[in-house]
Request: fold
Amino acid sequence: MSSARAFWQNAAYTQQGNRPVMRVRIEDVAEAAGVSMKTVSRVLNQEPNVSEDTRKRVEAAARKLQYRPNPSARSLAGQRSFLVALLYDNPSSNYLMEVQAGMLDACNSQHYNLMLAPVNFTDKKLVAHVDEIVQRSRADGLVLTPPLTDHPGLMKRLGQLRIPYANISPKLRGERIGVVLDEERAVRELMAHLVSLGHRRIAHITGHAEHGASQWRMNGYRDGLKAAGIEFDPRLVAEGDFHYDTGAICAQRLLLMDDPPTAIFAANDDMAAGTIRTASEMGLSIPGDVSVCGFDDTPLSRQIYPPLTTVRQPTREMGRLATHELFKRIKAPDAGQLILAPYELQLRKSTGAVGKPRARKR
Reply:
């Protein structure tokens, strides 16, 4: 019997419409690569102690046969669900979409599935809700975004459940794994840019009080003022919460001051966009009358006019990196680390030299 005929006789079939469709099995990949099924499983699960030559041979066979792992069989064989969950309570949809895209990149490379799990940080039943999500989904691990990364009750419960989790921008570091950014340094550089343009009255719209990012960006703002010899003025600080609307509201209060700021640094791009809207409605030009800058470099920063000066936080890459550190922890209890991600200033048309002040529309 020819090998091709034997392959077709031994292959499993599924039904698609009115015709049977062949489903390639792990046994077929093993036979084509000339290795055991256990070796194929180890290669597909990216486990160690497999030679590079064997790994390439198995991967080539899987590609040629268009093999797709059976999720149920993988779960039973490895006692895993091959599912990770993204837990979030973040008002910026742009930020979350980028994190999600990065996580999907990582999950696809490891043949994992991704589940989105929105929760309410202020809910008194938050811990019980997350407990239910973990028990119901049987997720192998979690990725947490701020401010969930620093919820004491949640941290304690995840430790009790012994479920691996990775963090994006945790305020508390310690033994955490995941990814962080040097946000204070990034904001200091952004402030130096504004100072170089002649700005001395620089306002700040803060983010959500529970987010580590809000604290770091405020610290960077104050350090930037100090480095330029500018005295900190609490009247130039407005409390936002990362929402577009709060940016617009805070900007109105700041721009209606008797001695308004010539530049406004908003703690994220959404609030910076709200600031630009308010300034425009007040008849002000940007950056002629007031310079505006944000943080994150979400797609919104390039879609508004004028395009926004901001700090590029590689949010998609941070989602991908955090997920890969999670996979390491899933495979080995002591594996994984906290990675420092790079940032980059994006200098665009929303910032410019200080102009002559003119009357604000009220």
